[in-house]
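LAB NOTEBOOK - FOLDING QUEUE
OPERATOR: T.R.
BATCH SIZE: 2
PURPOSE: Compare the predicted structure-token outputs for two unrelated chains run back to back under identical settings.
PRIORITY: normal
REVIEWER: second-year student, initials M.K.

ITEM 1
FIELD SEQUENCE / FIELD STRUCTURE:
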Amino acid sequence: MRQYSPDLTPPWKKRGPVPEVPAEPGLVVEEPGTGFCGAVIRCEAATVTLEDRFGKHRVFPLEPRGFLLEGRVVTLVRPSSAPVRPTRTASGSVAVPGARARVARAGRIYVEGRHDAELVEKVWGDDLRIEGVVVEYLEGIDDLPSIVAEFAPGPDARLGVLVDHLVPGSKESRIAEAVTSEYALVVGHPYIDVWEAVKPASVGIAGWPRVPRGQDWKTGVCRALGWPENTGAAWERILGSVRSYKDLEPELLGSVEHLIDFVTAPE
């Protein structure tokens, strides 16, 4: 009797036609043998270097059928010398290759703090430059009424404001109501801080911890997660995990898109 041995070849190494995909910078793939998933940051003659969301680098050989792209087996190949321009910005908008930044509008978008501004710049920066919208940050919103009065919003100078923890009955909501007008719009998200607007999975955590009242929230988050109590370093880690709008919660996405539409509305 003929005996048959089971085929123990991993599925991704079984022969058959698979697409060849240029290893362009930013392409996210998985090396199935190790489970390492990351974005291409460099491609040499025979190897490719991937970076995962924690900033860790791994070098892999460019073997046939060696990677998974969105769950499908592919063969990565060295890209041609001509760079391939991205077709989408980090916000998901259609990229406009070679577009020059527009002269800044009189209108502005204000956000509460530096971290908010850096996150908006990372995801929406390309869009904002094309539209000529400048983002500035405040140190809290207690003085927002006087700031809005000094700005004097009008038909040709609309003002949009993004507020953290904008929930009914809060101090933030009362201030927002006081300054909102035809040419000044205040929107926000429900999170205590913009850190929480980054999806936990993107940061590599199960969820954002609850911090008891009376504690500094950011320091409490670092302590609960076992991170060094250095909020600046923690923010760099969080911001570094954001590659596109897909890493952000819908509540923040909708608010920022609303503000951009408002500030850029035709006079």
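ITEM 2
FIELD SEQUENCE / FIELD STRUCTURE:
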Amino acid sequence: MALRAVPALTESRYFVFGHGYSAGHFVATLDPKSVEGVTVRTRDKASHLAAHGLKPFVFDGEHPTDGIASALYRATHLLISVPPGHEAPAGAHVGGANARPGDPVLRWYENEIAHGSPNLQWIGYLSTVGVYGDHDGGWVDETAEVRPVSARSRERVAAEDAWQKAAATRGVPLAILRLSGIYGPGRNGFVNLASGTARRLVKPGQVFNRIHVDDIAGALQLLAERRLGGIFNVTDDEPAPPQDVIAYAADIADIAAPPETPFDTAVLSPMARSFYGENKRVSNARLKAAGYVFRYPTYREGLAGLTADADRARAAAGLPVPQA
């Protein structure tokens, strides 16, 4: 792909579609003045972000939003963190006549991105290692065949292809970040232990990779600043059985781990069961070769750093919480 010359700008200007858990942690590392805008799905969240100096736009994927096209015109960096297809706000009716497949950003702003946005220098797209599907526990890297099993993973593959075409038309690098299971503050085994929802399902040979949200933010920072394109697995060093991770969290919190439950006898939702139908070990060698050094290379370092959530798990179990 022939890339257009990078404009002589001294300051990066970011626009983020989808200010969720992962993208929100990345945005928190930026100077709010460098953020041209972020999208959210509710007015309440927009009000909260505006109070913290950001410029939020309410975008549901079903309609264009006033002001986004102008913000895209000024942006040098574009981050996409919204799923393909229709996803309504929590509590709203999902599906129906208004539901449409495909990437919601390209649905409304492909022309502005592919043919406009004169300052654009880099696009980042947050995807998932789910696009690889099942590889029977074998190692996969970015050259591996994609074998999407679920509908959501097939939609991701289609969205990746669509963004590659848009970036090629515009002539800017596109970084596709394929993320493993995301954890971090407020979203981890300690939280599940505290709420009583932690389970230790045992399926022989099953492993998953994980990624701390701070490493997602760090990888984005490196790729965006260096304007690197390509596909990158953003995942930790150690694919591990999920029951081991819960046991390790329980050990840190000094509370009893839930008993092991055979996978075959467990009652699971279809979505939860589908996750266990994909077994692979995901390599992060390409991201390391690009210069990224992981802050939390395995779940052990990641969980050890989540002291506030560990304390809440201890408190929920009726144990004393260490004083700082």
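REVIEWER COMMENT (ITEM 2): The two ends are 54 Å apart (CA to CA).
FOLLOW-UP: none requested
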